[in-house]
Specification:
With 487 residues, the chain is α+β, with helices and mostly antiparallel strands. 33% of the residues lie in helices and 25% in strands. Strands 3, 4, 5, 6, 11, 12, 13, 14, 15 and 16 form a 10-stranded mixed β-sheet that branches. A hairpin with a 7-residue loop joins strand 12 and strand 13. The longest helix has 18 residues. The radius of gyration is 22 Å and the shape is globular.
């Protein structure tokens, strides 16, 4: 079956389930966990329908740091099992399922004056032990090492030279784009027969199906299923009130590379007064730099699209500036974003200290809810949720299923396109639409988003098939070029 997602396929498959076609598994939520669950279930031979109220990766999945973590922070909290799980899943993504979407990112801790560099280095070495235990080769992720002040400045010229004694260099995984991972998961699931329906909002949920509204037409219909998986993340409790979560806001800033001048090396900056918390300064392949992230509890109603408050902006600028030659100011901020973590509630703990373990919960009426966890461990979360349905007679096998575009071989296409589309990059080039839409992004990429990646409007393209929308000025400039592509 074809992996392409588009408006025509959506209409056809929506008509099938609205017309009474029952499925084995209904997955609610089109983020990384929901898309992962759809792929896992479909790969085990189950019939699957995924419904998403907005677009693929509309919620928390697109607001991450774009990192595939090896679990070092969990190790510092004594969660050895979770740390090992993260290291294993990172290795699977980088070497088997999505090597085209994940690259090795150098991470630098600059040493200024007296710091607990021995303690930090011990942690980095422990992380490298996890890397080896997970079977990830050093050719993919080199081991950590101590470097001189001269080499530190050569890697990141924007660092403050005064008092610099050297640096600690390590490596972790970085996603080219978190939303692209979700789209790749959904398309791979579609290739195995899963029905992927965006703009389909669940209004009532039960253990044997859901009442759903097509938000494009306003029509309501029922989907019948043998089992239902609620993978709506931080919004899970809105559909299953018995699920209790402690939402936490993680904010990021978007800056131009010229404002920070750190090249392709990320910075790990200790937060004053904290033992195992850091602010990350993360260079991107598109000439931007992300600075994040916060960990603040959120009370009250949960917005569909969170925003970073000024207090988070000030905090991130202050900590990042502590190691830079030129302090950052609000005038350097060209964009920002925030995501809400679906942390499992634990009495008496602040959000920064809550475990990132996931949980699979079954409500009295049979709805299976999967919550908690991290983007890196989505595959394990998805597999556990599908296991909980009891429908599959065979174990999960997604660790060995390459996602759409996955390749470690040379691809005859521009490197920028290979980094986004992998083995499909030559097909994008073959569309022969080289006209620029914004920056290096061409009409071919926009057409590909509509014809193959499930985009239905300009927002889908700007905010989830590209990163243009992260910078308001860029979004405004690009929007006028996209109207002619609308379906």
């Amino acid at each position: 079956m074809r992996t392409s997602l588009n408006a025509a396929r959506r209409l056809r498959e929506l008509a099938e389930v609205a017309g009474g076609l029952a499925v084995d598994v209904l997955v609610v939520g089109g983020g990384v966990t929901g898309a992962g669950a759809a792929l896992d279930a479909a790969s085990r031979g189950l019939s699957v329908c995924l419904v998403e109220a907005h677009d693929l990766a509309f919620g928390t999945s697109r607001w991450s740091s774009k990192l595939v973590h090896g679990g070092l922070r969990y190790l510092a909290h004594g969660e050895v099992g979770l740390a090992y799980e993260s290291a294993v899943e990172r290795g699977i993504l980088m070497t088997r399922t999505a090597p085209h979407l994940v690259r090795a990112l150098p991470q630098l801790v600059a040493l200024h004056g007296k710091q607990r560099d021995s303690l930090v280095m011990a942690g980095l070495r422990a992380g490298d032990v996890l890397r080896r235990a997970a079977g990830t080769p050093r050719s993919v992720l080199p081991p950590p090492r101590r470097i001189s002040a001269a080499e530190t400045l050569a890697l990141a010229p924007g660092l403050r030279a005064d008092g610099l004694t050297g640096g600690l260099l390590s490596f972790d995984g970085q996603l080219i784009d978190d939303a692209r991972l979700v789209v790749a998961l959904a398309r791979t699931a579609a290739g195995l027969g899963a029905r992927i329906l965006t703009r389909a909002r669940v209004t009532e949920l039960a253990g044997d199906g859901a009442r759903v509204r097509d938000t494009l037409t306003g029509d309501d219909f029922d989907i019948k299923a043998r089992k239902v998986i609620n993978a709506t993340g931080v919004w899970a409790g809105q559909l299953v009130p018995s699920v209790r979560l402690r939402p936490s806001r993680g904010s990021h800033l978007v800056l131009s590379a010229d404002a920070v001048q750190i090249g392709s090396t990320s910075l790990t900056v200790p937060i004053p007064g904290e033992t195992n918390r850091f602010v990350l300064v993360l260079p991107q392949t598109d000439g931007r730099v992300y600075v994040g992230l916060t960990d603040e509890p959120v009370d009250g109603p949960l917005p569909d699209v969170p925003t970073a408050p000024q207090s988070d902006v000030d905090f991130l600028l202050r900590v990042a500036s502590s190691v830079l030659q030129r302090p950052l100011t609000t005038s350097d901020v060209i964009g920002s974003y925030a995501g809400l973590r679906p942390l499992i509630e634990q009495e008496g703990s602040r959000s920064a200290d809550l475990s990132r373990k996931h949980a699979v919960l079954t409500s009295p009426d049979g709805v299976i809810t999967v919550v908690g966890g991290k983007l890196t461990t989505y595959r394990r979360m998805a597999a556990d949720a599908v296991d909980a349905t009891g429908l599959a007679s065979n174990p999960g096998r997604t660790k060995d299923i390459p996602l759409v575009g996955a390749t470690r071989s040379a691809v005859d296409a521009p490197p920028r396109l290979v980094a986004k589309y992998g083995a499909e990059a030559p097909q994008v080039v073959a569309l022969n639409r080289p006209e620029p839409v914004f920056g290096e992004i061409t009409e071919a990429e926009i057409a590909w988003a509509y014809d193959h990646e499930g985009a239905l409007d300009a927002d889908d393209v700007l905010d989830r098939r590209t990163r243009i929308g992260l910078v308001p000025a860029d979004r405004s400039q690009a929007t006028k070029h996209l109207a002619r592509f609308a379906t």
